[in-house]
Amino acid sequence: MAETVLVTGGMGYIGSHTTVEFLNKGYNVIIVDNLGNSSIEVLDGIYKICGQKPVFYNVDVTNYQQLSSVFKSHPEINSVIHFAAWKAVGESVEQPLKYYNNNLGGMSNLLQVMQENGCQNLVFSSSCTVYGQPDVLPVTEQAPIKEALSPYGFTKQVCETMIKDVIASNMSVRAIALRYFNPIGAHKSAEIGELPNGVPNNLIPFVTQTAYGIRKELMIFGDDYNTPDGTAVRDYIHVTDLALAHIAAIERLIESRNANDFEVFNVGTGTGNSVLEIVKTFEQVTAQKLNYKIVGRRAGDIEQVWADTAVAERELNWTAKLSLADSLESAWKWENNYRKNIEK
Ligand code: UD1
After folding, report:
1. How far is Cα 132 from Cα 269, in angstroms, rounded to an integer?
2. Which residues of the chain are modeled with pLDDT < 50?
3. Does the model's pTM come out above 0.85?
4. Residues 27, 57, 99, 152: which is the catalytic one?
């Protein structure tokens, strides 16, 4: 019998790419999503890629009754990947309670419902934001958790602690938190990708929208950092590689290969790239000229971070395979395909 995975937030950017990889591997997928930052058309994109649709429930993870009834209807659910959360750093500073209610309330409900239904395996979508500006690079999982710079970042730290505490209290759950670095790119088919609402906050959607002519120019936030070219450095990972890390994590739990009941792994490429390197690589792979200007630093940004991926490679037997050029090319293909469809 094929395993069933419940994917909360499965209609979102990372959730939809992860759903595709699970379906391609023969898993049954059930999605719970409130469509708060995604659209029902994502199901069509998944269908075009996989030839099948996951089971979909328009349910908010903060709604205990509804979440509970999904578990009651599907006693076969023994594994959950929890993506459902708000994720805009700036918005979290303006509306902290929106983030605390949803990200923490959803986590608490999910753990309770998993416990009540004897559901064992959990993979949680965490972030390298928990490290703040690390003292040592590349950053390992042992690096200290620094004071969060935003309510969004704080919710990631608290969710990891909630999971740890609940497991320590004797709950039969075992969990893996994946600390993502900067996910970018889109499925190679360009049928699914990132769908930012309004003006993008993140670099790559801003780059592709500028190249497409929707934005006048990219603003590069700061060129006076202590980095080789002065612009900030991040570890950009292709979303499909990231999706595959979730399969590796769930299989580790299903096969009881986990060393502890709560584990954390960095999920990045192990390479840092500056904002200017992103711009140059984008221009090379897409043959587009990008308008940009250097402006002041963005509040709350760290200077540089990239992952030490040795533990993920060893324990999950997973490594990022796609290049920065692959990521940027796929993001550009997705932007074009998406615009073509909405302009129809
Ligand atoms: C942030 C979060 C991360 C979260 C991610 C997704 C922090 C510290 N980081 O990552 O946890 O998972 O968002 O929402 O909370 N840049 C520009 N111009 C732009 C946009 C970005 O120069 O128009 C620069 C930024 O200054 C940064 C880099 O590009 O150096 C990447 O920015 P972004 O894509 O927003 O991701 P992070 O801030 O690294």
Report:
1. 18
2. none
3. yes
4. 152
